[in-house]
């Protein structure tokens, strides 16, 4: 296991993504470097990058963290009970971009490595990550482009990977209490080590490297579309689903909070303006209703 190799890649990925998004927005991300001193529940360091109230991004965060802890939190051992209580090391880059324009979808991406050392064994290392798209107003060409880019990135690692990770994403980013998907999905994988360290790390890099190619063409295509208060109101309402998922179901959020992570960095993914309504539904036949009827259901987008 070469932790430095993973760390170097993740820091470079963060820099590349932030540079590209600054060029798109015209603003500058602030950099908040932080350190957790040894002796506490968690030690390590990170670099949070954030742009708020920009021309394109209403709020966008891209964070790197490299931490060590004495005990894996429950969210990390639910599929690996044999590692319960083991010390761990975790590295990752996570981002969420909330554009101002309702016609541009919100996007999330995360790539990470986690290593744990059980008391009676060798270190166990696995990778996780993926990306997913959350539109407010759906466009078929956008969803198809996003999925095809993810599919093509995973082809070198086996033809089974995209269908498998696409289904995993559909199932993971599903709000059970609402009985609806969060968006149009993408790919998601976790606890992945079946290609060995080098192969699994290469697959994680392929997903991370595909992010800009998957998202920037969509952002460029939609960023100048004219919108009004109606579209902003619906965007704020749908953002509520994003908040609900992240606080109730998201393993990354739960891992960070349960392990004693940095709250500001963990909750940087939250949208800045959100609304909830009681038992509200869009009028049939409206563009808002089309999101539900045509997009918030699993589809074979890569073949669309």
Protein architecture, described:
It is a single chain. A hairpin with a 5-residue loop joins strand 1 (30-36) and strand 2 (42-52). The chain has a seven-stranded antiparallel β-sheet with strand order 1-2-3-4-5-6-9. A two-stranded antiparallel ribbon has the order 7-8. The longest helix is centred in the C-terminal third of the chain and has 27 residues, at 196-222. It has helices at 3-25, 74-77, 140-154, 161-172, 196-222, 229-248, 251-258, 263-266, 287-295; strands at residues 30-36, 42-52, 57-69, 88-99, 106-116, 124-134, 174-175, 180-181, 185-192. The chain has 304 residues and is α+β, with helices and mostly antiparallel strands. The radius of gyration is 19 Å and the shape is globular. Helices cover 40% and strands 25% of the residues. The protein has one domain: oxygen-dependent coproporphyrinogen oxidase (3-Layer(aba) Sandwich). It contains nine helices and nine strands. It catalyses: coproporphyrinogen III + O2 + 2 H(+) = protoporphyrinogen IX + 2 CO2 + 2 H2O. It is an enzyme of class 1 (oxidoreductase). GO terms for molecular function: coproporphyrinogen oxidase activity; metal ion binding; protein homodimerization activity. Its cofactor is a divalent metal cation.
Q: Which sequence of strands runs across the widest sheet? A: 1-2-3-4-5-6-9
Morphology call: globular
| N-to-C CA distance | 40 Å
Percent of residues in β-strands: 25-35%
What is the C-alpha radius of gyration, as a whole number of Å?
A: 19 Å
Structural class: alpha+beta
Integer count of domains: 1
What is the makeup of the main sheet? 7 strands, antiparallel
- Report the total helices: 9
- Name the average pLDDT: 91
Tell me the CATH architecture: 3-Layer(aba) Sandwich
Order of helical and strand elements: HEEEHEEEHHEEEHHHHH
CATH homolog superfamily: Coproporphyrinogen III oxidase, aerobic
Briefly note the CATH topology name.
oxygen-dependent coproporphyrinogen oxidase
Runs with pLDDT <50, length 5+? none
Site (Important for dimerization): 177
Pfam families: Coprogen_oxidas (PF01218)
Subunit structure: Homodimer.
Subcellular location: Cytoplasm
